[in-house]
Amino acid sequence: MLFVCYPKCTTCQKAQKWLEEKGVEYQFRDIKQENPTEQELRQWHAMSGLPLKRFFNTSGLQYKALGLKDKLPAMSEDEQFALLATDGMLVKRPLLIGADFALPGFKPSEWQERLDG
Predict the structure, then answer these.
(1) What number of other Cβ atoms are within 10 A of residue 81's Cβ?
(2) Half-sphere CA count of 111, side-chain side, radius 13 A
(3) CB half-sphere exposure, 94, CA atoms < 13 A
(4) For the chain, does the N or the C end have fewer beta carbons within 10 angstroms?
């Protein structure tokens, strides 16, 4: 599994601790050092089955600074993917990526369900 996070984010720290307590093996990736590519984001979005908006860090400073709350609805999916690929701080984190799933954000019940499934 791939665990994509921002090490200074407290939610990411909680998620990492949760994974370690469960004994889950994962590859760690710092989203600020290695931003997801547009291709990765497209693949993860498809695997997630979620609306693309769920991949945006809507509480982030960058999201607010760019006024994306108002701009996103008018943007095409291609434009949204391209934008997400420009800055890891725009991407919802942490992300847990498995062979057939992608979970943006840390919801312990969702993560547990995936690990059990």
Answers:
(1) 19
(2) 21
(3) 31
(4) C
Residue-wise pLDDT for 13-39, tens only, equals 999 999 999 999 999 999 999 999 999
> How far is C-alpha 14 from the geometric centre of its chain's CA atoms?
15
Q: Model-level pTM greater than 0.85?
A: yes
pLDDT in tens, the chain (117 residues): 999 999 999 999 999 999 999 999 999 999 999 999 999 999 999 999 999 999 999 999 999 999 999 999 999 999 999 999 999 999 999 999 999 999 999 999 999 999 887
Strand order in 95-97's β-sheet?
A: 27-30, 2-5, 95-97, 102-104
Alpha helices in the chain (DSSP H): 10-21, 38-48, 61-65, 68-71, 77-84, 108-116
User: What's the token pair of residue 5?
Assistant: 């996070």
